[in-house]
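Allow me, if you will, to draw on your knowledge of protein folds for a short while. I am sending you one protein, given as its amino acid sequence and as whole-number tokens for its backbone shapes. Kindly check, if you would, that the fold set down in the tokens agrees with what the sequence suggests. The record follows directly beneath this note:
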Amino acid sequence: MTKPTNPNIEIPAGFAIDGQKSDFDPDKIQSGFDPVSPDVLSGDNLNKLIDDTYKGLHYSMDGVSDLYKGAVLYDSTETYSLTSLVFSIADDGQVSLYKSLVDNNQGNPLSDETKWRRVNLGGSGMSIGTLFPAFASSSYTPEYALSCDGSEYSSTMFPDLWTNYLTSSPAKLLTKNYTQYNSDITEYGNSGSFGVEYVISASKTGTTISTVEVTTPTWESKINTAGEYEFSYDGTNWSLNSETVTLSEYGIILEGTASSGDTVTVNYSYGTHFKVPTIKDGTFIQQAKSDTELGKAYSAGLPNIEGSTSQISTDYTSDIWGAGGAFYKNATYPNLGALNTSGRYSYSIGFDASGSSEIYGNSATVQPEAIALRWFVVVANSSENESSMDWSAWATSLNSKANTSGDNFTSEGKSYLSGIGMPSGNYIDLTLGANDSQYTAPANGWFVLTKRLGASAQLTTSVNSKFGFITYSNNMSNQLNQHTLPVKKGDTVTIHWSAAGSITKDDGIRFIYAQGEEE
């Protein structure tokens, strides 16, 4: 339907200013108007006013009709096409609008999120990123908002928030990468920014560099902006944007020796998750004095208390000289000098922190009077519908999720978790090399060594150099010797054996994948 045309409504100046009107004649007053052929009132201004009033009324009604055009009351026996709109009316009178996600949509309840999507026509009325407290219980989260508790969410749950506010250039909301965000939590217990996940990949040019790796925490302590970063080597120094740097300060690790002209390129791109700001219990929010303070967290603190005196005398001219700061001369005590000699005085030293700073004494406690409430941040509103979701369904879905403490695991869940890391049925057989050969674990799991000893006092040893795990065997002649060494992916294991003779069919090394790992 075409959007209704706004009518040209203008009250004539005569009616608005002069108040023109036409009097009814006495006959009309006595007998009234003919209901079949009513008279038209004289006076152009009054007639136009009535006409314009109805034009405006119809325009408003057409606008409301256009808003809900095509939306019909849901009927499970009807078949709906892709993008069809239906509405439902709950027992309490609440009206909800739904959009079909598939064609031939029949008999599917509106609660089926694979077939229907709830359309949020309302909104919080507050801008995205607004921070607000609410009288909310621990089990309730206001619609269009998330609790400021540091929880992590997928970008697909809030695509508009992710695209238009967290990863826009520049970002409209305060953001930090996960390393900087977690650093705030460790140091202060708070973070006044959203945490944004990034993904790091690296490549290199040149034949003398075999591999390049980037340590995420070190990189993210230096970089907080997505982009491609190219480091070039001139034979002596590495540089980034024509500035001499060291690769280690960016967490870049090379295998091999770089040659002049070699480059290392790090692609730092957005991931798929974010964390909401964290405001811990008892934290106060204050106005930032400059851009550099935006989102900055502070530890609790008070001014230092200082004071000093330059000299204390108990002679006839007894006094305390140079008392300042928190120290002052207090009471005077006559005749208390040496040997209680008359005319000699002593003084006591007083201490008052307000002399050091007027902040002391202004209150009986560092904690001002306050009400403890939960803080929330707005992540969706009526103008950002793509960021909103079925909040009631989302809150209900959390009831079946595992707590971070694991205290609500089911028996099935506990059994599953206890099996993770146990040996699986997947394994690969490797060739047992010469004495002191090394093997790298392709995944989490176990190396199993089998070696037959040719004589007594011979031995086999396997060593995980990273964690220091050692297995050792020393058996009688012709005994089949077998032992197992646990490893994590990437661990290097050294196999030492002194058994004489060549490797036989009984000798070998096998890697067994841990449960949850794939070959």
Summary: The radius of gyration is 40 Å. DSSP finds eight helices and 32 strands in the chain.
